[in-house]
Structure formats: C-alpha cells, structure tokens
User: What shape does this take?
Amino acid sequence: MFIFEAPIDMKKKKPAQTAVAETIKPSTEQGFNLPVETTWSLLLFIFSTLLYANTIGHGYALDDVAVIQQNKFVQQGLAGIPQILTTFYWQGFWDLNAGLYRPLSLVMFALEQTLFPNSPFINHFVNVLLFACSTVLLFKTILKLFGKNYGTMAAVASLLFAAHPIHTEVVANIKSRDELLALFTLLATCIYLLKYLEHNNKLHLAFAVLAYALALFSKESSVAFLGVFALIFFYKKIDVKQSLVTLAPFVVVAGLFFAIHQFVIASGPARVGYTYRDNSILASVSFAERFATALYMQGKYLLLLLFPHPLSYDYSFQQIPLFNLTSWQVLLTAVVVIGLMAAAVKGLLSRTAIGFGIAWYALTMFITSNLIIPIGATMAERFVFIPSLGLCLVAAYLLVKYLAKASEKLSAPTAMLKQAALLSGVLIAVVALYSFKTISRNADWKDSQTLFVADINNAPNSYNVQYNYGTVYIEAAKQEQDTKRKQELLTTATSAFERAIKIDSGVAAAHINLASAYYQLGNYTQAYKAETKALTIDTLSVDLYNNAGNYAYRLKLYNEGLAYLQQAVSRGLANEETYKFIGGTYFAQQNIPAALEAYDKAIAINPRHIENLTNAANIYAIAGNYAKAATLTKQALAIEPQNKNLQTTLLRIFNDTKQQDSLQYYSQMFGVR
Assistant: This one.
C-alpha cells in the first residue's frame, strides 16, 4: 500500500504537516509482512519483469546480428573474450572502426554463448532481468539520496520509469545490453557512494569505484556521471575539499579507461568518419543550422517522454529535417529548455528533487545531444534511456507535492485517504496507458522483419526505414510460390525502394534492390535503368557490372551490356559470372569464337560451375568440336551425375557423332533404353 507523505520540499516544510506518516518505516506493514522498502522493491521487480515478459521469446533484431549471431569473437564463447577486450566494439563483425570500445556487453554475450549457444531466449531473459533489477536500484537510490520520507516519490518515479514505452528499444533489443549494463552499474555506483558518504566506510567507496569502472566499460558516455557524483555531493552538503577527495578515484578510473579506449581504437583500422547518412545534422550548411536542428531534437525527446507515440527504431536521414534558428519548432523548444533551466536553478538552490532531476537529465543527455559535437546518429530512443530517470523523478515530485497540497484544506481524518485516491487515480491511469503501449510496442521487436513492417508509418521519411521495408518484401517474394502473390510482394518492394531513392538517391543499395525487384517482375527496362544508376555510385562491385550486362542482354542491348562487362574485366573485377555474361552476349551476336573464349575463361576461374560447363559444351557442339563438348559435359556430370539434361546432352553428342560404343555404354549407365 502507499503511505503518502506531506508536500515534498526540502527547503520549506510547515510544522503542521510534519505529523504525516513516513513512507518507509523500519517496522513491518500488515499484508506482506515485509518492510515496506522490501515490499516495493519486490513489486517493482515483478512489475518490470511482467512488462517485458513478452520479449523473452523473441528472436534477433537489427544489430543483434553484428554483436551475437555473426560476431566471430562472441561465437567463440570464452575463447573470444581476449579479442573482445583488445579490439574495438564492432571488430568481431566488420572492420569499420567507429571509435567505440564497449567490451562488457560483448563479454556477457560470449559467456551466454558458451553456456547457451545461439539462444536469443537467454539473451532476452538477461535483458529483462537487468532492467527489472535496475528499476529496483532506482527506487533504492532515490530513497538513499532524499531519505525514507520520500518513499512515495521514489515509488512513483520508479513506476513511471519502468512503464515508459520509450525504453522498449533498450530492453527488447538485445544489442542494447550496453545501455542496461551502464544503467545498472551507475545506479549501483550511486548507492555505494551514498553509503560511503553516510558511513565513511572505505569498502563502500571501493565498491562504488569498481561499479563505475564497469559502467565505463559498458558505455563510454558513463563519463557524464562524474557530474552526477558532484551533484550528489552538493545535495548531501559535502564540503568542497571532501568532495574533490572523494571524486578523485572516479576521475582516475575514467582517465585509465579512456587511455585503454584510445589505445585499442588506435590499434585497429583507421577510424571511419560519420556522414549525413549516419547523422542528418551533418548535412547542415552552418553551425547555426546544426545547432538549431539539435535543439529541435531535444524538443522531440521531451515530447516523446511526455507522449511516447509514435516510436521508431530509426530517426536517420531524412526523418529529422534540418531547421534554422527562426523555425517555430526550435523557438518553442528553446522556450521549454529555458523554462527547465530556470526550474533547475531554483530547484538546485533549494536542493529539491526538481533540481536534481533536471540536472540529471541535462548531464546524462548532453553527450548524445548533438548540440556541440555531432555523434554517429541523429537521434535514438536509447539515448534518452538513462536521462529519462531525471524527468521521471521530476514528474513524481510534482505529482506527489501537488496532490499533497490539494489535501491541505481537508480535515485530518480524510486528508490521507483523499490524497491517496487522487494520486492513485492519476498514477494508475498514466502507468496503465504507458504499460499498454510498452507491451504492444514490444511485439514489434520480435525480429527485424516484424520491426521493419511495423515502423514504416512511424518514420516514413527515413531512407533506412523505407529501404529495410523494401528488403522484407523482396526477400518474401523469393520464397513465394504463388505467381500473383509474388508480383504483389515485388510491387510493394519497388514502391519502397523508389521512396528510399527519392529520400536519398546517392546510396547504391536501394538502386540495386530496385533493379532486382524489377528484374523479377520482368521489367528489364527499369531493372537496367536502376542498375546502371547504381554503377554511377559504386564502381567497385563486380555484381553490378554483371547484372548490367545481364539486363542489357535481356533488352538485346548487346553492345551496351558488353561495355559494362568489359569495364569489370579492365578493372580487374571479373569473375566467372562476368565471363558467363560476356560469352552469352557474344553467342547472341553469333560471335562463336569470342563466346567460346569467354566461357573458357569462366571455366578456368571456376571449373565446377554447371551452367558455364553446359553452355560451353553446347556452343562447342555447335562449332563442331564434339570432343570438347563431350569432355565438358562429362566434367559437369562428374559434379551432378543425376542431372537428366546433362545426360541427354552427352547421349545426343554421341548419337550425332555416331559413336555407337560410347552411346551404348552411357545409355546403360544412365538407364536409358
């Protein structure tokens, strides 16, 4: 049960209100027969677990492939941990060094891989467990910081945080284990730090420093908590000298971490630079435009925290447009931010939860805000995961304080009950709505395909969202047997790729997939157009040259197709497919010698390519070289001895050349009468 305290104000408190009961008492309460703090901890743990229980059976989504499924270090289990500790974050998957070093989550994945190989069930279960435990730690941290008289505020803030739908990306996406570990270890750091300040036990300080080290190895942005620690010292009225002495080991640990971080990053491939495709604000033409857009995004975050709909896995180019400093959205955000800053200053001076909550939000949000230094993403719901704690605290403070004041005029016997009814009604409504959204949003994170389809209307202006949506349908078309349904799927795919290209025409991938979809629809003209456009963007992919040659062949544009195929040869990119299309094109032009030369090169590259062996055999037969035709056919049959077409071809060769002994021998071998 709730026991509601008087108006929460650490600066002002009327004597008449001090008679209100404390929220947390050392004695037990009837009903659960447990201390109230323990009871609420259990309730919060159960509530948080139930909210995300429907994610435990999910598969892998988005970057789960890169950090688990196809991560060569994680897949090695325990044996891969040394490489995880000494390489940058993505190196187990690719060589694109983005300057990230977050080994702790990868080490956990490697351990889980050892005990439960390729088990998304276990991975999701651990995510849910970490989130539930973090919610409990949040509750305990608030109690430790503000005191047990603030139990209702602590419970309300923790409930709001647990239920908030914006956290679904972190909990439902296994890859975001780094965020969960950072939160868990940072809250543990705060609790041990507060214990140290209370009891002056050096062991508590050691545990706090250790927990903070783990936070840093979880995610680099944990460095922002140095500011939060200073904020704790201020609220606990620790003098400057003691604060600096206590903060020193945390600064040392942060320094050591970043020394290791820089060494590991420098030891890998050269760092890649971010582009507007990673972060939309990099498309801005001035710092003012970039700052204005970043400020708008802060308003977007605040709006999503208040009204979390719609949610999206992606906010990249061009979902967030560029703004200037005179845009009304930017000006409105500026007014809100200034108001929050004013409230923070007032709250800090009086050491209220408002000041602490807004300061928490600002300190932990700044690194990913893009306000000064652009990062590797435009915006993401995971970026507000830890900062949202602060605003949940502010909301809880205001809710409890407002309703406590509303009950001041009521008579003493009824004040508590009416206050409880008001608070419970508002809280239940908000938590119920948030919980419903969270549970329903969880379902979207079942796997990548489900997510791509679910979010097409949530971020329609994002290139990535449109492109990924198209890939779902083009892949589905490959598996579809019904011709009509297959065409419907491909048509949907082409529409998505066309929209993606309209958003950003400078990415080859959308043009390539668009060409493939049109090709499967039999629209060779559009396929050729899309493929040749892709070749103006990417000139190093042999597949593009091969496809262009194939599509041109279908349109009987033989010379154009040959030109693209020969470019692949001149660039040293040619493979057996290149020479296959060259051979086919020359054959269509009745240039038999050139066709045979091309097929010979194709077979030399890959002597087990059935189609090339078969085509070359047929052309050699047409050219009258039956011996060579027979040799190639036998070579193909050695690979696929049950291939009826190859058997028929070989028998026809022997029949046409009147090799009766060979014809009889192979007829018996093939069971042909």
Summary: Residues 1-32 have pLDDT under 50 and may be disordered. The two ends are 89 Å apart (CA to CA). DSSP finds 30 helices and no strands in the chain.
